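User: I'm preparing a small set of examples for a lab meeting where we compare how different chains pack in three dimensions. I only have the primary sequence for this one, and I'd like the structure in token form so I can line it up with the others. Please keep the answer compact; I'll paste it straight into my notes.
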Amino acid sequence: MSLFIGLMSGTSLDGVDGVLVDFWAGATRTMSAAYVPFSAELRAELMALQAASDNELEREALAANQLAERYAECVKKLLDAADMKAADVRAVGVHGQTIRHRPELGFTRQTNNPALLAELCGIDVIADFRSRDIAAGGQGAPLVPAFHHALFGGKGKTQVLANIGGIGNITVLNADGSVTGFDTGPGNVLMDLWIARHQGKEYDEDGAWAAGGKEIPSLLKELLSEPYFALPAPKSTGRDLFHADWLDARLKNYADAAPEDVMATLTRLTAISLADAIKASASGAEAVYLCGGGAYNGTLKRMLSAELGDTVQVKTTDALGVPPNRVEAMAFAWLAHRFDERQPGNLPAVTGARGDRILGALYPR
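Assistant: Understood. Below is the structure token output for the 365-residue chain.
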């Protein structure tokens, strides 16, 4: 076997998704999967670190240590579930937690302590996947399209993978074998922020709250006027742009709006920004496959389907044999495997880098 672990904690800040994957002989076989939630305290600290604050260096270092402990807990769960030992695994690929993403300034920051993780789990750790692509002039994101191409490509027809985490991004697997992809804008990030503010919940389960609201057309128009949506690819974004202050500035004339109506409008914003990107980049696609937490939002899925029209089927990656909540973690197991083989992990056509690059940095066990 050729076993690699992938760990992903995304912009939704909910916890760690992990998978143990066997890449032996070109296969991609999931041996086990696990999830470790963040504590409320860690989630709050990671959220606070998204913006400038007091004593950031020390606070980030302490949060990174806590993250490494959560990652190690997830690794243990994966090994126990598969009845494997640490010595059986070639490497752990870990994304880290993005707290800044400023490729236009030449940097990205995924807080993490991979040295501590290697110490805790006794396995080689490969981390810091984005910075080499940025050093080569790229966006450093999205990185998952390369994995989407490896796992789902080569079908001779145009397919779209839409990952809806905190931020939305698409991968277009064209019929001719070429690949494009970019961040489309907010995925769950604004919806999660709004329901946390008004109901104290982490997310809108199945989009039930949004389904009970009525969209506000003028607010939707204001939200869609954000210049990011009109930028050409390659492009990437994050909480550096789509955050509470961004939303509040656009809500200043809607103080009397019902919260559920705002929620319905935010859900439509995610649907439209995804649909517009798909229609502009993959006009020949017959199907869109959703992954990430947003794939479980029934209201969002219905809105996206309505925006795309009857000729495009909207499914989840379950239809391709991979549960939606495992795809990104699998991507980082794959990126660790690519590093181990000294093979490139980026797609310059997606990120805008000057060429293929081996991504990641090794922290030996």
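A couple of notes for your slides: The first strand starts at residue 3 and ends at 8. The chain has two domains: 3-142+326-363, 145-320.

User: Perfect, thanks.
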